[in-house]
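Continuing the series of single-chain predictions for the mutant panel. This is the parent chain; the variants come on the following pages.
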Amino acid sequence: MTAAVVRQLAHRMPFTVSHDCIPLITLAQRDLGMSQAQLADLFQTSRRTITRIVASKALPSTFQLHVLARALHPVNPELAARLAAEGNATLEGLGIVQPAAPPPPPPPEPPPVVELPPPVVLAPEPPPRPQPPPRLMVESIVCAAAETMQTTPSAVRDVLRTAFARARGLGMTIEEVDDALSPPPVAAPAQAAVKKIASKRR
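Parent structure:
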């Protein structure tokens, strides 16, 4: 027969009080200062039955052990717990003491540490290329004008200086001068006529 079967059979068998409770009853009677008559009243039985119990000729009921444990608890809690156990109970189960509070739940685990990737360091943009000195830029304008006129830069330098001085005196901007000097757009019919004349000349 296995241990599991033994435990199952023991669970099904009714509980019986053992003679181990007799010395505990005697100690409880002493701590409470009770006579056998008072103990009989507490057990709700006859004095003759108490005499038989003390002499180990009879056994109390589980109810009587519970009653004695309840009366004894204020005087001797440890002995009261042993009497309750002999009656197949506990002080908590009999409502004599409050059950112990359950332990607090464990604290939540801290969140995992997420290692962030190192920041991406972007290379600084190169500084803008510095503009050439104004004298060189003006010289470039003079050369462009000379090339258009098919002459030397020295021949157009004074002409351009005079023209720009006149525009400054009139309060005109370079954009306004450029727009005024640009030829107007040719209308579509006129442009077609120009192309026709040019084709006849060929």
